[in-house]
Design goal:
2 domains, Aspartate Aminotransferase, domain 1, 13 helices, globular, Aspartate Aminotransferase, domain 2, alpha/beta, 370 residues, 3-stranded antiparallel β-sheet, 7-stranded mixed β-sheet
């Protein structure tokens, strides 16, 4: 029998992907974290123009200079972070950015603290890098990463803390005070924060704060995927100080060489063009959120109102059972167990779908949840 490495054999296919691929053709899919809007026209036009002028070859490994310049300006404008274009790497989605950061930072046996509940990739990528994953339970009604709880989980072998605000799957938004306190822990204990900020523009209450405002011990990860409804374009980026970037380049070079040239041209247009499309999406998501929350609360479901992203994370008892029964009735959600040990009583519901689908799904949910 063929032998495979433990670090791969011991991880499983994403619970999100399992539910997505098991969905029937007539199912209402509330399981996938993907905006249902088309990519804005001016972004598509930039991609077509890039193809027509022959912008279809390898680019510099870190990304085309024009895009890295634009991202440097974006970080200053939107995040109050001063990074040079040389401190930015353009990647094949946020997924690659997370992967190369973990590969460069985590040795076998190192401890990686991840939010629990937390996005499925954090634990898997830590494990692939040889790290030992320690889940930090989220606290309070809003399910946030409490700096005091993080401090209790710090170990002598800790190398990385993953922060995700707004959060997938909870929709929670960390306060500026919490982000600053987590940053101070990174300084005091000399670990690196990997800050996943892909939902930064979808906030309905509170504000977005980046750890890089407060510490250099941070890798800021972002992408065009959610912000501009470009999930299939696979274009992300990261920013960090040069001591990080020099090592990240080595991994990036051998796993990817460079990000997609046409997608880079498209994202340049996205970053430098009008942002009205982003605000329009945010307003639509907020209206959908309110509709979904009203329906769930009307059924008596315990469900805090998320402050950001496009997910709700209700407590339903046995999340695996409820997700399975909902799927049998044509409503695809994701069991909380996909996101960590502390999430088993929950399911994740995405409202990145139409209001009509949300209303139809709520009607089917009543048969299971009530």
């Amino acid at each position: 029998m063929r032998s495979f490495t433990d670090r791969v054999s011991e991880i499983d296919i994403s619970g999100i992907r399992k539910m997505f691929e098991a969905a029937g053709t007539d199912s209402i899919n509330l399981g996938l974290g993907e905006p249902d809007f088309p990519t804005p026209g001016h972004i598509c036009d930039a991609a077509v123009d890039a193809i027509r002028i022959g912008h279809t070859k390898y680019t510099p490994g870190a990304g085309i200079p024009e895009l890295r310049n634009a991202l440097s300006e974006k970080f200053l404008r939107d995040n109050n972070i001063s990074v040079s274009p040389d401190e930015v790497i353009v990647t094949s989605g946020a997924s690659e950015a997370l992967h190369i950061a973990m590969q460069a930072l985590v040795e076998p046996g190192d401890d990686v603290l991840v939010p629990d509940p937390g996005f499925v990739s954090y634990s898997a990528l830590s494990h692939i890098a040889g790290g030992r994953v320690i889940g930090v339970p989220l606290t309070g009604l809003g399910l946030v990463l409490d700096p005091d709880v993080v401090a209790e989980h710090i170990t002598p072998n800790m190398k990385v803390l993953v922060v995700n605000s707004p959060s997938n799957p909870c929709g929670s938004v960390q306060s500026r005070k919490e982000i600053q306190a987590l940053s101070e822990l990174a300084e005091d204990y000399d670990f690196t924060i990997i800050s996943d900020e892909v939902y930064e523009f979808f906030i309905y209450a509170g504000e977005h704060a980046s750890p890089a405002e407060f510490t250099d011990n941070v890798v800021t990860v972002n992408a065009a995927s959610k912000t501009y409804s470009m999930t299939g374009w696979r274009l992300g980026y990261l920013a960090a100080r040069m001591e990080y970037i020099e090592q990240f380049h080595k991994v990036h070079q051998y796993v990817q060489a460079c990000a997609n040239s046409v997608a880079q041209a498209a994202v340049l247009a996205a970053i430098t063009g009008s942002q009205d499309c982003v605000e329009d999406m945010r307003k639509t998501f907020e209206a959908r959120r309110n509709l979904l929350i009203k329906g769930l609360l009307g059924m008596g479901v315990e469900c805090p109102t998320p402050a950001g992203a496009f997910y709700v994370f209700p407590r339903v008892g046995d999340g695996d059972r409820v997700a399975s029964e909902l799927a049998s009735r044509g409503v695809i959600t994701v069991p909380g167990s996909a996101f960590g040990e502390y999430a088993r009583e929950h399911i994740r519901i995405s409202y990145a779908t139409s209001e009509s689908d949300i209303i139809r799904a709520l009607g089917r949910m009543r048969d299971v949840i009530l």
